[in-house]
Write a structure and sequence with these properties.
heterodimer; A: about 425 residues; alpha/beta; eight-stranded parallel beta sheet; six-stranded mixed beta sheet; 18 strands; about 30% helix; about 20% strand; B: about 325 residues; five-stranded parallel beta sheet; four-stranded parallel beta sheet; 11 helices; 9 strands; globular
Chain lengths: ~425, ~325
């Protein structure tokens, strides 16, 4: 469809653009900004005065729960939530049931996404068979089936030799390895940061070293193997400093942070709020500041909602017996804008963390609305305020720790590949 | 503008009175002192010929224990009986969750029996809060110990004991010795001592059993028992659980006793009038020698007796009937 978007403030972090510009889409691509191309006749005109036009958001870690956990959510429900929240690309970690360690599971997900034609779905394949950490997955076959990167989800590979080989083998095919760093011997059966809040609640501490030891190991292995390694969901100031140092030395590594880590600390666990049960755990105020600074300064290049929708029962138990994770798609853009406002971060920098930043991590040609790019566009009314609640969350998972928060910015239109897939 | 959801204090009703009793944190000094004063009124009851007060006549209390307990359960049971309540003990030793029933379902089933109060012990931190958040409006919950989080009635009976023997808290230095990391008793004792204004709270033990957050809680940390006991007025020994006696946190119970076990000789470092307490059950020869446990300095058995009065106070206050209501009945 040929679409003309007029009067919007166009913000494109990839090109540093931030100015009022008309936008012209045709054949699934952006064909021009500013001046109407000769002979362009729009089939649809969108008057976007007072709104922002930004690249569709790229989410690095969205559990869609299909196949296998459809009682929590499914590809349909979460794709709808995504486009409603301005997210046009969803990267899916391999911890489905069955695990994404065979082309058949990749095919199933890709086919479902194609049938839906809502958000684009990109699949992250398993590094090891069954995520068991003992046998390499058939990475070549997974790459041929369409996987964009490899990870072991939140099953950190404990064996260093196995991780080394997994990196080497992934590098053989130019695949990025995404590593989620938790030393099980320091973290298993534990639930909170070791501060006064966790102590007072009697929740056993997960020390920062549970993260930093594994980050350190994987940085050394990345250096040894030459693999591209992406560090997922960092929670500690120390780990961020280690990543910064490695990037300064020129290692091909990157890292991201979950949006909730920029807003919540272990103090939010007060009264055992199970919505705040996350892994890695919510940490201290100084960790939170370090994460914010690192994201602004480009040490961290992506923010993710770390979307993990749950059925109500999963959070309906004493804290330590509940499942971890938050439902994050719906709040990703609002929290990004809130962070920009609170820390006085330029909008292009803040939006890069959810568009061009994650796209680069996953090796995707997305996250920009420059001419020639895919026509994945999101229109935002920046003036609309909304309050987070189970009723305003589109995801089937209502497990948000942000209930009651007032966020600014409402997605009015989402366009994927030149097709309008959501209108408010 | 972000408005974070306000933390509501589950334990108090809108008039600031006890609705549940879950945790020392969140209570006021006045409330704590009020419970101790109320307990004083009940402490002499056992000396009477009729050891009963009719305050909770017609009320039904369920002791819902998901973990084994002798002392706590029986003293809660006695406390309820002395208040003339009907008591039902339910031991869920084989966790219902392993049978596929969620805690919430267990709770709903018991609620259908129309009780007024649950006394809950559970192995998971936060279990009592969880139950309190989900019980029917008229039902109260008393925390009989949840995971490593809290054991507030134990802490209160300890405070009662300390007040009986030592008077005002402002002048007191208290040493808590042993496995602080895994102890809900220690957490509640620290909270209560801080709230009541104790001059100094010390934690003493091996670094493997002392949480890193203790200094943030205003607790002075000692790894040397002799230093930790020097001039203290109260020594609280904690039970060392069997599974911790050898493994990653301690090499052996023998070494533990050599270094942190309380003997007459070690106790000599404390104030000459210092009392020795222990929440029980005792491991003689592991954390405490028999000579100390059975000495005049030990108030361990008094703690058990006072436990009944303190639990009577908590139960009657939560159900809205202090001892002053006795005359009206």
């Amino acid at each position: 469809m040929r679409i003309e978007i007029t009067g919007a403030r166009l913000i494109d972090p990839a090109t540093g653009t931030d100015a009022e510009n008309d936008l012209f889409l045709a054949d699934g691509r952006v064909v021009a900004i500013g001046r109407r191309p000769d002979g362009f006749t729009a089939e649809r005109r969108i008057d976007a005065r007072g709104q922002w036009a930004i690249p569709g958001l790229v989410e690095l870690s969205a559990r869609l729960r299909e196949p296998g956990l459809e009682f929590k959510a499914d590809i349909t429900s979460e794709s709808r939530a995504a486009v409603g929240a301005g997210i046009t690309t969803l990267c899916v970690p391999p911890d489905t049931d069955p695990v994404i360690d065979t082309p058949a599971v990749v095919d199933l997900i890709v086919r479902r996404a194609r049938e839906l034609s809502l958000a684009r779905i990109e699949v992250i394949g398993a590094l090891t068979a069954g995520l068991g950490g003992e046998r390499l997955a058939e990475m070549h076959a997974l790459k041929m089936a369409g996987c964009v990167a490899m990870s072991n989800a939140d099953h950190t590979i404990a064996n260093a030799e196995m991780m080394r080989r997994a990196m080497e083998y992934a590098a053989t095919f130019g695949l990025t390895v995404m590593t989620w760093c938790e030393d099980g011997s320091l973290a298993r059966g534990r639930h909170a940061h070791g501060g006064s809040a966790g102590f007072a609640l009697g929740l056993d501490p997960i020390p920062p070293t549970a993260e930093t030891i594994m980050v350190s190991r994987d940085l050394l292995l990345a250096e040894q193997t030459g693999a591209h390694v992406h560090f997922c969901r960092l929670s500690t100031a120390r780990a961020v400093a280690m990543i910064g140092e490695a990037r300064t030395r020129g290692l091909p590594v990157s890292a991201d942070v979950a949006a909730h880590q920029l807003f919540l600390t272990d103090a939010a666990l007060n009264d055992f709020d199970t919505a705040c049960h996350v892994r890695p755990p919510l940490r201290s105020g100084s960790d939170r500041s370090a994460l914010r600074d690192a994201l602004r300064d480009g040490v961290l290049t992506a923010m993710t909602s770390d979307h993990q929708p749950h059925e109500a029962d999963a959070k309906m138990n004493p804290f330590t017996e509940t499942e971890s994770g938050v439902s994050g798609l719906d709040t990703l853009l609002g929290l990004t804008l809130r962070w920009a406002e609170e820390d006085d971060v330029p909008l292009t920098t803040a939006l890069a963390a959810v568009t061009s930043g994650p796209a680069a991590v996953a090796g995707l040609d997305r996250g920009s609305v420059a001419p020639g790019c895919r026509a994945d566009v999101c229109l935002v009314d920046p003036e609309v305020r909304w309050t987070v609640s189970p009723d305003t969350i589109r995801s089937r998972g209502k497990n948000t720790p942000f209930t009651g928060y007032e966020l600014q910015g409402r997605v009015t239109t989402t366009i994927v590949g030149g097709n309008v897939v959501h209108e408010a | 503008m972000t408005v974070a959801p306000e933390s509501t204090n589950l334990q108090l009703d809108q008039n600031g009175r006890l609705r549940h009793f879950l945790d020392i944190n969140g209570l006021t000094r006045e409330l704590l002192t009020g419970i101790l004063d109320t307990a004083e009124g009940f402490a002499g009851l056992h000396e009477r010929a009729v050891k009963k007060a009719p305050l909770l006549r017609g009320k039904t209390i369920i002791n819902l224990f998901f973990e084994p307990s002798t002392r706590t359960r029986t003293t809660f049971e006695l406390a309820a009986m002395r208040l003339s309540a009907d008591v039902l003990n339910i031991d869920v030793q084989v966790s219902s969750t392993t049978k596929g029933e969620s805690l919430l379902d267990t709770l709903r089933n018991l609620e259908a029996m129309h009780c007024d109060m649950f006394v809950v012990r559970h192995g998971s931190s936060g279990a009592a809060h969880f139950i309190a958040r989900h019980v029917a409006p008229g039902v109260s919950v008393i925390n009989g110990g949840d995971g490593r989080h809290a054991h507030p009635t134990q802490a209160l009976l300890d405070m009662f004991t300390i007040r009986r023997y030592k008077g005002a808290f402002e002048n007191l230095s208290v040493a808590i010795v042993g496995d602080i990391s895994h102890s809900r008793v220690a957490r509640s004792q620290i909270a209560a001592l801080k709230l009541l204004g104790a001059r100094e709270v010390r934690a003493v033990g091996p670094a493997t059993l002392l949480p890193g957050a203790l200094p943030q809680m205003g607790v002075n940390v000692y790894t040397d028992l002799d230093d930790g006991l020097r001039d203290v007025d109260v020594v609280i020994m904690l039970r060392l659980q069997r599974e911790r006696m050898s493994g990653p946190v301690l090499p052996s119970s023998n070494e533990y006793f050599q270094v942190w076990g309380l003997t007459e000789e070690r106790l000599a470092r404390a104030h000459p009038e210092a009392i020795v307490m222990h929440p029980g059950p005792l491991n003689r020869g592991v954390e405490i020698s028999s000579e100390v446990a059975d000495s005049k300095r030990s108030v361990i058995l008094e703690q058990v007796s006072f436990g009944i009065a303190v639990r009577m106070a908590v139960m009657s206050m939560v159900l809205g009937r202090g001892p002053e209501a006795q005359d009206a009945d």
